[in-house]
Amino acid sequence: MRGVHTVVNDIRRKVFTEVARMSFEGGDYGETLRRLPHKIIPGEVARYRQNILVERAIVSERLRLAIGLPLRDLNEYAPTIDHLEDSVVAEKYYEPPLINIIPFACNACPPKQVRVSNMCQGCLAHPCREVCPKDAIKVVQGKSVIDQEKCIKCGKCVDQCPYNAIIKFERPCAEACGMDAISSDELGRAKIDYDKCVSCGMCLVNCPFGAIADKSQIFQMIQAIKRGDRVVAAVAPAFVTQFGENVSAAQMREAMLQVGFADVREVAVGADLCTIEEAKDFLEKVPDELPFLATSCCPSWSVMAKKLYPQFKDNISMALTPMVLTARLIKKEDPEARVVFIGPCAAKKLEASRRTIRSYVDFVLTFEEMQGVFDAKGVDPSKMPGDPENDFMRATGAGRGFAVTGGVAAAVKAAIKELDPEREVLVEHADGLRECRKMLAMAKAGKYNGYLLEGMGCPGGCVAGAGTITPVKKSTTAVAAYMQTSCSQSALESPVAQRLEELERLEDEAEVN
Fold it and tell me: What does the record list as coiled-coil region(s) (predicted)?
């Protein structure tokens, strides 16, 4: 379903746009929230659900999440604006849970099953029956029938049917969840185990019923702009193509200044610093102190690794993520600035809510949410003038490459080779949490001793994050072209490379305080 624009995308965009417009225009927020479901879902005839009242009720819950409020308790009547006063502040951080299932929007899809369809031809050979390891397939009146009590969902029958008449069926959100965090409640609806969930958002973008949504800080960020705060945008390198086919960094900067941002910076600069720090970590610690080193920039990957393999917590690099390093650069130069990270990732919202990070990163918005802000203000980045000399802070190709699978490892490996040309660097990378888990299982077995491991929670890397707009392949190609426009391809030649020690001292001071 990724890469296909659907009505689910349209509804999400309308919700983000209307929340942004409400925040910009002000007035009676409670009254506006009461009216918005009727504006977003107009008329009297349902177009998407069994009736229009359900459609509007679902939109009401989406609106609550989009202003940072929790879902309402279905067992207690509460108006849409319940606890609205808790969100009408510019200082509100994300509160767990970040990813939410709207119960009455869920289709209650059945859990994983293997089924025989009506395309079964009742063949004489019945290879499906012959390969079943649990004797779960019987032939009834010439047709194959699967005993679901015996079936272990191995899929061998699926592979052997000459007519492709047997299908392996799985709830899309559960299939997309690399943490196996989604099960069923007593009514068969999807339920998230938050002890397992790492907020990657893959369930969100793979639910065809649009029943899963995350919280947003659109409202709070705009409140900060309106009251005159210096809000500085830190934009992730995956932005290319997200807001228009050929939107340049200079056009993006101009569009964001028109929205009300005081300045715009490039997160790839922080990625350059992260590259240098991880390269030094590898040289110092592998293999004398650690058998392998894993990258730190993807929060879903690092949280997953520490949850499932706590014995490897020290193997995850202690380097700060590009988002945090960029935010620290900004705050060092302008202590009064409020930083908003704008990127592809839902999990960054969770990262920014940590106590040690929230003093640097004030807001996190996805590209999808930022598009809603542009729509609300009537700003089209593709129509902006753009002076190439008035670009973002310059980053290297290495830092910009963090946006795609393999990019982090490639950047760190190149830096290691520059620092120590004689050092052999073995690299392995995985994208998607299931593949990341397999990689760590191999590491546990000692297969990756001496390696640099890169983990990315989203299949395809950051360009495939839950907050992206553009298809993954298109974004990957665009990032590769963007890398070539960089001032240098080496992180060690970054204009801010010499400031890493300064930021590390800042971190030490923060820990002391």
Answer: none
**Orientation of helix 500-512 relative to helix 322-333, angle to 10°:** 90
Which residues does 94 contact at the CB level (< 8 Å), separation at least 6? Answer: 68, 215, 217, 349, 350, 352, 353, 364
What are the CA-CA distances from residue 347 to residues 201, 231, 353, 437, 484 (Å)? 7, 21, 10, 18, 28
φ and ψ at residue 11, rounded to 5 degrees:
-65, -45
Distance CA 308, CA 315 (A): 13
Residues contacting residue 120 through CB under 8 Å, at least 6 positions apart: 143, 144, 161, 163, 165, 166
Q: How many CB atoms lie within 10 A of CB 168?
A: 15
Q: Which CATH architecture has domain 113-169?
A: 2-Layer Sandwich (3.30)
Burial of 396 (0-12, 13-18, 19+ CB in 10 A): buried
**How many C-beta atoms surround the C-beta of residue 323 within 10 A?**
28
What residue type is 428 in one-letter code?
E
Residue 332 structure tokens: 């060092």
At 5-48, the pLDDT tens digits run 999 999 999 999 999 999 999 999 999 999 999 999 999 999 99
Residue with tokens 């999400």: 12
pLDDT digits (tens, 9 = 90+) for 274-289: 999 999 999 999 999 9
SS3 332: helix
**Range list of H helices, 132-201:** 156-160, 172-176
Where are any strands of DSSP class E within 56-128?
A: 99-101, 113-116
The strand pairing partners of 455, in sequence order, are 430
Place of tokens 């190609």: 477
Helices (H), 71-214: 127-131, 156-160, 172-176, 202-206
Measured over the CA atoms of residue 283, residue 285, residue 291 and residue 296, the dihedral's sign is negative
Structure tokens at 277: 């720090």
Enumerate residue ranges in the chain where pLDDT < 70.
1, 88-90, 388-393, 504-513
What whole-number distance in Å separates Cα of residue 147 and Cα of residue 109? 19
SS3 state at 143: strand
- For the chain, give every domain's residue range: 113-169
At residue 512, the pLDDT reads 47
Judge contact between 234 and 267, C-beta under 8 A.
yes
Q: Look up the pTM and report it.
A: 0.93
φ/ψ of 174, rounded to 5, equals -70, -40
List the one residue out of 485, 502, 129 whose CA is nearest residue 333: 502
- Side by side, the strands of the sheet bearing 263-266 are 263-266, 231-235, 338-343, 363-366
Nearest to 8 by CA among 216, 217, 243, 213: 213
| Residues present in the chain in total | 513
